[in-house]
Amino acid sequence: MSANRTPSGSADVCIVGAGPAGALVADRLAARGHDVVVLEAGERFDDDSRRERMERHIRPGHGPLSVWDMGGERDAYTSSGDRGYPLNRARVKGVGGSTLHWQGMVMRLHELDFEQASRHGVAADWPLDYDDLRPYYAAAERALGVAGADDNPFAPPRDEPYPMPAFEPSYSDSLFADACERLGIATHSVPNARNSEAYADESPCIGYGTCKPVCPSGAKYDATRHVSSAEADGARVIDRAAVQRLEHDASGDRVTAAVYATPDGETHRQQASQFVVACGGVETPRLLLLSASDAYPDGLANTSGAVGRYFMDHVFAGTGGVLDAETRQNHVGFLTSECHQFYDDPRRGTEQGVPDAEGDASDYARLKLEFLNYAGPSPVMEALGSEEWGDALLGSLRQSYGNHIAMGGLVEQRPRASNYVGLDESRTDDHGNPVPDVHWGIDDVTRRTLERANEIQERVLDELGAEVTWQVGPENTGPAFHHMGTTRMGYDPAESVVTPEMRTHDLDNLWIAGSSVFVTGGAMNPTLTLAALSLKAADHLHDTLASV
């Protein structure tokens, strides 16, 4: 029997998007007794299909987009910037959103990330600081189930331990740790949103190693946990309900309905008292731009002109090679060690062998270094893709697997108006709407920081005695697929889209949750900050509803 996708007769809150931001807001509000409806463009995936989806990932006969059924007219996009942006490699349209295929590392932004203009005269300050988010960071760590340790001397202060103990360092982490100690480089654990022990009715991680793009066991957090919790408290989640536009009243002060299409070809209007857009850093500005009206000719909530502007991502820096020793790569599918030592000032070297870099602090972006656990070929993928059998295959696997090693890193992109998400009027999706156009490139500061990351990575691999066989730097870098900044927050309605409470400046009952509200992105994976901000937005929305 087909699902009922007709609108609810009335709702306190309509949320667009059932990814992590939308799910957390829905769960927090439904638990407080509010009538919540969530509209999700993608489908609701069956948990029982996850092992089969893992096989799609490891078997060479399936393309990467097939794991979560991405691609085609529905997911069409263009990329008109200096560098091509492979948008669909980063997206899952479905209940759970990007957390269905993310890798699961969750760090807090550093204190300076909120004050870059004040401290260094670059980028812009957030309209809130680290202390404002501190209790929400702790709440987000509990909600997501984070395994971590307080062993990072460069991390911002915290008031309580992580919900679960950190994962033990991998074998290759120990090789890096010895080399880094000789160079005066500190290594420390990585907080992960995956279970190091039983948590939230889910088992501990059992090591499938396919965390990205699919965790078959459920030990890694995904937003379906909070969708289920919200539904248990009375929220209604409608899948395959693609919102086409938001409509507003005659005054242009309030949203009146979310207009959505369903697979049967019908179009419906969901009314509510309050609306939350939580579609991610690309689809959120796209929906606002598609909702242009006489009152908002440049897009809904866009009197500032900032909707879609200041698109940020993190760019990857990496260096890898081989050792004349076993490294045990691909035994772990996520990071267990990293380094924030160069985060606040990538120029700084060490007395033990990393030279200082030239220039001022403002000449460099934030930089986080990572010690990879998945360098080199996977033996499973090598075997499945080989035409050899038996002893010949075994011999080839022994030659190609076992001695690879690599470092990675994330480099910040500062907000620039020239990086943006717009609409491509020349191409349409399956509903006839203009597709998103991602205009993206990197600037000299990003390039310089990538070069510095490579320099440090080379020095570490040299200390290990590794032969460097590949490197990703300024010329061949790519995105980490962390979409940020396209509906930035701020005090000034002329320069920002939402207030520090995540309510739009232009419309009284329209809120935005997710990484699109970031002012700067730092170099930390954004999901924990996204979750903290979503919990904060939910509290402000609850106060608004309670005051009516």
From TrEMBL:
Look up the domain of life of the source.
Archaea
Q: Which InterPro entries match?
A: 4Fe4S_Fe-S-bd, FAD-dep_OxRdtase, FAD/NAD-bd_sf, GMC_OxRdtase_N, GMC_OxRtase_C, MIP_CS, P2Ox-like
So which cofactors does this thing need? FAD
Annotated Gene3D superfamilies: FAD/NAD(P)-binding domain (3.50.50.60)
- Keywords, alphabetical: FAD, Flavoprotein, Oxidoreductase
Q: Which Pfam families match?
A: DAO, GMC_oxred_C, GMC_oxred_N
Q: What's a single GO MF annotation on this record?
A: oxidoreductase activity, acting on CH-OH group of donors
Transmembrane segments annotated in the record for this chain: none
- 4Fe-4S ferredoxin-type domain boundaries: 196-225
**UniProt record similarity statement:** Belongs to the GMC oxidoreductase family.
Q: What is this protein called?
A: GMC oxidoreductase
Organism of origin: Salarchaeum japonicum
